[in-house]
User: What shape does this take?
Amino acid sequence: MHSKPARPVSLRPARLATYLTGAVGSSFLIGASQAEAAATSITFGFGSVLSPTSNLFGVDSPSTPNFGSMYVYAYTYVDFENNEFPFVSVGYSSTGGRGSFYFQNLLNPESSYGTAKFLAHGTVVGSQQNGQLGSAGFTTPNPNFQINTNQTNKNLGFLTSTGRWGWANVSWNATSKELTFHSAYVESVVGDPITINNPSSVPVAVPEPSRALLALAGLGAAALRRRRKQAA
Assistant: This one.
């Protein structure tokens, strides 16, 4: 009795698997997120409150996570006549590379020091001139640069020492001379502007799962059609 020759194994399923593998790979490529900028919440090393009792004269305070640092002044200034003046200021000259806040100085526009400049919601920080960069004072020995009234939930624009634009929401107590940082955000990409009151990440272009499945199905159907044409 002669046995029937073994039926050759078809390679078509393997080909189909190859097509589908390519389709699946393509769908993952479609769904892969793209690296984009994101507004990141940070805290500065000096904590949430700055007051003359902090004794932080000339301290380079890093942010957490580390997106750069900010220079801080918070101490009690004593003059030659033993008069005490509270001193609370943040930022440094833009040429110092230590981080800078927006400020206003109507007395000497070329100076790198003045009173803190508050910015409205929706202001774009970093792509337009919202003020000079330097040290933003709240109370100083110079009466021209003091903020003598309480300020609640005000926004400040700044640039960290690593060149990242950001903004902080603060309150100033003119009686106790305390500056409270409620929150702060920086743009993760160096040089990219940031919009005040927009702490959420920039949307990443990722298709919905249904779109990826449709792409997979479409590539699979194309592979089946090609097989039928080759078999005809």
About this structure: Residues 209-231 form the longest helix (23 residues). Residues 39-195 form one domain. Confidence is low (pLDDT under 50) at residues 4-35, 200-217.
